[in-house]
Amino acid sequence: MAQSGVVFGSYAPRVNPKELFDRLTTPKTLELEPRPTFIKVGAVSNVKGSAYMEYGNTKVMAQVEPPKEISKNSNRSGTLGLILCSVKYAPFAALDSEVVARKESFMSVALKKALEPVICRHEFANFQLEIKVLIIDDDGCALSTAINCCGAALIEGGIPTYDLLTSSTVCVLNGQEFVNPTADVEDLLRSLPGCDNSSEEHGVLVTASLSGVGQISECFQKGYLLPETLERLCDHSLAINLRMVDTIKHVLVNKVKQHIASQEGEESNGSDEDMENNS
Amino acid sequence: MTPASGKSQRKHSKLICLPGQRLCLSDENTVSGQGTYERMGYIYATLAGTVHINEKDNCKFIEVQCAGSQTIVPVAGDIVTARVLQVNQRAAKCSILCIGEHVLEQNYRAILRKEDVRATEKDRVEMYKSFRPGDVILARVLPQTELSCYQLSTAENELGVVIAISSESGPNGPPMVPISWTEMQCPNTLVKEPRKVAKIVPASAVKTEN
């Protein structure tokens, strides 16, 4: 790696991005599959709504704070609750500090936009819900993983939502489509020279969708993409979202089953005692 | 889950649902209850939990019981448990601890005005003879007129002071025993103190307004 003179993970505009691109492993076929995923709801024991998610090597943690009253001085009118999102990188996720600050701020805004349509905000009029996300490890798709993780955390916390929320990332670089791009691909995309009058497409697209009602809550695009490409990427991303729903459903149904089983355990203990009394 | 299976398994209510799941058709006799919403003629769930169908007055109320505890905030008409923090001549400042049987993680500020202490002889109410700081009260949430502050009312027989400690026996003293609807007595010192005492009844006996 060292002899090439260029390394991944630095953010100056690249003079010759081709060299880095050649080192990337490009997928031969387009597979619209999510990465291997692990989700644990209720990961933080002393908080009600929390979730931990691993999406390949990307590791994200989300937690929902109990609703707080909006302070008097903020003269806000309206009957919908307020959503506050904050995304933070773990201090040990070694990245350029400037890049971290920029990523954190744009991801907070994008996450808020993705979550607002899914939460039944009318049930929290005059309240604010704060959702905190910690990115422990970023190997690409951090925003989409954060959205997925928040969706699970909200449902675990018993906050009414209109639907299950799923999200995924796709990107185009040098005419090559990447589904679930890794950190290396995302870095290269970000460091490409912004405007060089070339007609070559490069860009990243994150969509968040509500599968049941068939709505898209967030469509985040960055870079230069032709409308046809954007449409195609959008379709790909939505297809992955649909596959993702099954995983999230499975995790949540298991959680409900566990809860029912634990309740039944208590009840059956009670009924056993009753039986003994009768005999 | 089809509507048909929902009806056949009514008694078991082991129907698991997730947010966004279509539960059944909505018509005059099928009403969307807690944990559900209505959209385009169908009823959908908003919570992950089990479906319950309550029949009342020829109507079916479709409700979703959340697995684990739901996140809720006080709504007008709820019976809440609150602690009195501060008392002055016109009102008492309180902090809402529970809604019904649901213990809140976050306490919410509320105010109980002099005119909402009891239903009769409102002009003769004296705040200091009704509540003291530290008392635990049962109250009903009034419709919110002011932003960021709930208004409470104890103008019902079943509402008022539930737990109070006599001012002389200090914070670790025994709770006082109600002797009438206006007085409580300390079991140790036998001191009587005035309070707006709640008549404790089972939760089912308190009439619900919503």
UniProtKB/TrEMBL annotation, chain A:
Chief subcellular location equals cytoplasm
Q: Which GO terms describe its biological process?
A: nuclear mRNA surveillance; poly(A)-dependent snoRNA 3'-end processing; rRNA catabolic process; rRNA processing; U4 snRNA 3'-end processing
Disordered: annotated span: 260-279
Q: Name one GO cellular component term.
A: cytoplasmic exosome (RNase complex)
Q: Where is the composition biased (Acidic residues)?
A: 264-279
Recorded superkingdom: Eukaryota
RNA-binding: present as a keyword of the record? yes
What GO molecular function terms would the record report? RNA binding
List each copy of the Exoribonuclease phosphorolytic domain by range. 34-160
| Alphabetical UniProt keywords | Cytoplasm, Exosome, Nucleus, RNA-binding, rRNA processing
Cited SUPFAM superfamilies: Ribonuclease PH domain 2-like, Ribosomal protein S5 domain 2-like
Where in the cell? Cytoplasm; Nucleus
Q: Which family does it belong to?
A: Belongs to the RNase PH family.
- Name of the protein: Exosome complex component MTR3
TrEMBL record, chain B:
One GO MF term on file is: RNA binding
Instruction: Please give the chief subcellular localization of this protein.
Output: nucleus
- Entry GO terms, CC: cytoplasm; nuclear exosome (RNase complex); nucleolus
CDD domains with a match to the protein in the record: S1_CSL4
Residue limits of the Exosome complex component CSL4 C-terminal domain? 104-142
Q: Name one GO biological process term.
A: RNA processing
So where does this one cross the membrane?
A: none
The alphabetical list of record keywords is: Cytoplasm, Exosome
Enumerate the spans annotated as Exosome complex component N-terminal domain: 16-53
- Cellular location(s): Nucleus, Nucleolus
Q: What is this protein called?
A: Exosome complex component CSL4
Name the source organism: Musca domestica (House fly)
Biological classification of the source: Eukaryota, Metazoa, Ecdysozoa, Arthropoda, Hexapoda
